[in-house]
Amino acid sequence: MSQNSRERILTRIRSAAAGAPEAPEVPRAYLSRHAPDDPDAVLDLLHENLADYRAHVHRTDEARLPGLVARLLAGRGARSVAVPPGLPGGWLAETDAERRVDGPGLTAAALDATDAVVTGCALAIAETGTIVLDSDPGQGRRALTLVPDLHICIVRAPEQVVASVPEALPRLDPRRALTWISGPSATSDIELDRVEGVHGPRRLEVVIVTGNR
Question: What Cα–Cα distance (Å) separates residue 2 from each residue in 7, 14, 194?
Fold first, then answer.
C-alpha cells in the first residue's frame, strides 16, 4: 500500500469516527472475583491447578529444598543439569549431577544432551495453574527451559504466588521475554491422542518453598 493510499484510508477512518462517543471504562473487579483471598487457600488452589495440568507438585521449606531437588534429579536418572547463572548455589548443594551453567558454550545441541534444568520463576498464578518465567538471571533464556526433558521449577511462597492473572500482569515487565507454563509441554492430534514433550519438557516438577527463609 502506498503512503498516499494509507493516508486516504486513515483520513476516512478519522472522519467516520469523528463525534463518536468515547468507550465507557470497563469495570475490572469481575476479573478476580473467583480467586480466594486467604493465602493458604490461594496456595492450595495453585497446587490443585498445577496438578490438574499434570505437573508434579511438591511443598517443602528452605532447609529441605536441596535434598528434595537432589531426589527429584536422581529419581529421573538425571546425570546432568542446566543451571541459569543466577540460580542460588545452595539449591543444588546435595546433587551429584553435573552442573552445566548457561553461557555461550551451552549450545542447542549441548542442551539437548542435558537431562534436566532447574530454575526459579517470576510468578505463579493460582487461578490458572500457571508458572511465569521472565528470563531473569535465576531463570535464564527461554531455550534453557524448552530443550531439556525435565524442568524443576522453584516457587517461593507467598511472595511469588498471586491469585489471578489481573494480579500478575502489573508485576511483570512486558519488555522481558515472558514464558507462561501450564503443565508439561503437550499437544493432541485430531483424534485427541495426547503427546507430551513436543514443544518443551516432558515432565514439569514444581517445588513450592514455604517458611524458613
Answer: 9, 18, 47
